[in-house]
Specification:
Blueprint lengths: L12 H6 L9 H20 L21 H27 L5 E5 L7 H8 L6 H4 L2 H9 L4 E9 L3 E8 L4 E3 L3 E3 L5 E2 L12 E3 L5 H15 L6 E6 L5 E5 L4 E5 L3 H16 L6 E5 L7 E4 L2 H13 L1
Parallel strand pairs: 1-3, 4-7, 7-8, 10-11
Antiparallel strand pairs: 2-3, 4-5, 5-6, 8-9, 9-10, 11-12
Length: about 300
């Protein structure tokens, strides 16, 4: 008994192409989404340029330049070091320059130029730049007849010294002198200035006494009178002695008012008889007290003049 086997029918490749393939029917929702996506693709295709499909372009990445700040800093430091070294060498070179010339200027009557130069040389051991100019100035002003000294450098190897000597205005006591600022100085040579007026008073009163002396000189000069001595005691009482020997008791206050009163009385009453006046006391509220020389002294003076 035979068995019949049904073999599947084989289709040729052409038959498969010819036969339409059965498609599964997709749901309506999926078909709608596919339709929309195809529409969107078609619109994008229409918007694309005519020369073909577009590619997503990316901007080229720029490379950061290399930083050379460290190199600039090194160059700056090297330049600063070179400048500092050059400046140090120049300073050392200038320090070694000696002072070869000293010029002294000013009206010198009591101070010799050679003496000034001899005093300055020991302070110049440091050379042109190392010389202690403040020390030189102090040493010069310590000299008796020098009131003020100015010292300055003159390039390349000289010093210029300008000296202002003391100007004695009056004698202070027996050995000292007063300058125009009331400063006391005691020079070794005093013979040429013994004719100056003598001022005396307590220590520390010299500047005030000098100011009063100058005021008195200005007030007495229009009257033809001059001072020979001015003294102040511990209580501040001032007594002036005129060149004719007359004494003025001025006191310690109301200086200007009292001297104005003296000028009035002198012009009105005393100018013609000052030879017989011994003292004038100005320490009154109004008026002055005048003391005359004794008559005996006047007779003796007249007799002496007759014998001569």
């Amino acid at each position: 008994m035979g068995v019949a086997i049904k073999l599947p029918q084989l289709r040729s490749r052409d038959d498969r192409k010819a036969a339409p393939a059965k498609r599964k029917r997709r749901p309506a929702k999926i078909r709608e989404e596919q339709r929309k996506s195809s529409t969107t693709a078609a619109q994008r295709k229409r918007k694309a340029p005519a020369n073909g499909a577009t590619r997503k372009s990316t901007a080229p990445v720029q490379k950061q330049p290399r930083s050379f700040q460290w190199l600039n800093r090194i160059l700056i430091l090297l330049g600063a070091g070179v400048v500092m070294i050059a400046g140090l060498q120049a300073y050392i070179t200038l320090q070694s320059i000696p002072v070869e010339q000293i010029t002294v200027s000013g009206e010198l009557e009591h101070t010799q130029t050679a003496a000034v130069q001899d005093m300055v040389y020991p302070a110049l051991t440091g050379g042109f730049l190392g010389a202690d100019l403040a020390r030189v100035q102090q040493q010069l002003e310590a000299l008796p007849w020098i009131h003020e000294a100015t010292v300055r450098r003159v390039w390349p190897n000289a010093l210029e010294i300008h000296v202002v000597e003391q100007l004695p205005i009056a004698r202070w006591g027996e050995q000292g002198f007063l300058n125009h600022e009331g400063e006391v100085f005691r020079p070794s040579q005093r013979a040429a200035w013994q004719s100056l007026p003598v001022l005396s008073g307590p220590d520390g009163q010299a500047p005030a006494l000098m100011r009063n002396y100058q005021r008195l000189v200005d007030m007495l000069k229009p009257l033809g009178l001059s001072l020979s001595e001015l003294a102040v005691d511990d209580r501040g009482q001032m007594i002036a002695t005129l060149s004719g020997g007359q004494r003025l008791n001025i006191g310690g206050r109301d200086f200007r008012e009292r001297m104005q009163r003296f000028k009035t009385v002198y012009r009105a009453e005393l100018a013609a008889q000052m030879d017989v006046v011994q003292s004038i006391d100005l320490r009154y509220a109004s008026g002055v007290a005048v003391a005359f020389k004794p008559i005996v002294d006047e007779i003796e003076m007249n007799s002496k003049s007759d014998k001569a």
